[in-house]
């Protein structure tokens, strides 16, 4: 059976950022015919195109493109799994084996352009002289195991090579920036180990926009830099030669789906990090960062080693093309003392 399902335009206004996401996921959807308890992808192709335009008091409001594309094959023989994903500044493959008990494989990836100190905002105004481009590439090895229903635990290891580029002065009509004036970190290797667990009783559908049940997730990261050297930020008069970093995350979600797919969602997420600088701290607020869960801000606006975020949303179906509107309210708490070096 083949179903061609088209999506439509929705408008999301969140805090200080206006985001236009034209969801063009007119995907060829071939449902997986399986009698196992394993969760199968609802779609084979998912495509989202759009742009974000900051509307804060920043001196320059440069628009940014948004591109997300997934190609997922979890219906292959012998539990084989393949996925390709492109997310604006990230591209990766997943090659592995997946069934109802475990998911294991390798994930070659590249993150380009905006990693590290790509922006340095203060009250919505960017300091170009402290900004530079960061990139990394490597291959992540992962294993996820579910010994009992509603619980799974995993371990990941990512050796990646990190390299950096100055920004050059640009004064065109649509894109303006000053040249980088601070010293850059040395190109180096980073080794990241991760432990995570998930407890959930969760049903999801419609590209995970509709949820029912609960989920609790915890993650621990240990990061070792090799060859980082000493990074000196002339503007903040701080230097960093941090080699070992620890990051801890805990999140919980509670969701209820009423009749006609009216969906109420509540999410709480927090992080606590030790020994971090502005080149490996979380970009809180980014739509494309792994842990960027606070929408509505520039991705380099907040760097903090402690934060807590609460989000409530109400999802309502519209009456054409399977479209939905999902207004939400976000609250972020950060302590007054910030231990991120160079912020």
What's the arrangement of secondary structure elements?
Blueprint (H helix, E strand, L loop, with lengths): L2 E3 L3 E6 L2 E7 L3 E3 L15 E10 L9 E10 L6 E8 L2 E9 L3 E14 L5 E2 L2 E2 L5 E17 L2 E16 L3 E2 L4 E2 L10 E18 L4 E17 L4 E3 L4 E3 L3 E14 L5 E12 L31 E12 L6 E2 L2 E6 L10
Antiparallel strand pairs: 1-4, 2-3, 3-5, 5-6, 6-7, 7-8, 8-9, 9-12, 10-11, 12-13, 13-16, 14-15, 16-17, 17-20, 18-19, 20-21, 21-22, 22-23, 22-24
In short:
This protein has 343 residues and is an all-beta fold.
Give the averaged pLDDT, no decimals: 83
Q: Give the tally of β-strands.
A: 24
Please outline the major beta sheet: 16 strands, antiparallel
Q: Tally the helices: what do you get?
A: 0
Write down the secondary-structure element order: EEEEEEEEEEEEEEEEEEEEEEEE
Provide the structure class: mainly beta
Uncertain parts: 1-36
What fraction, in percent, of the residue positions are helical?
A: under 10%
What distance lies between the first and last C-alpha atoms, to the nearest angstrom? 55 Å
Number of domains: 1
Strand content: over 45%
The coarse overall form would be globular
Rg computed from alpha carbons, rounded to a whole number of angstroms: 21 Å
Explain this structure:
By secondary structure, the chain is mostly beta strands. The chain has no helices and 24 strands. The radius of gyration is 21 Å and the shape is globular. The termini are far apart.
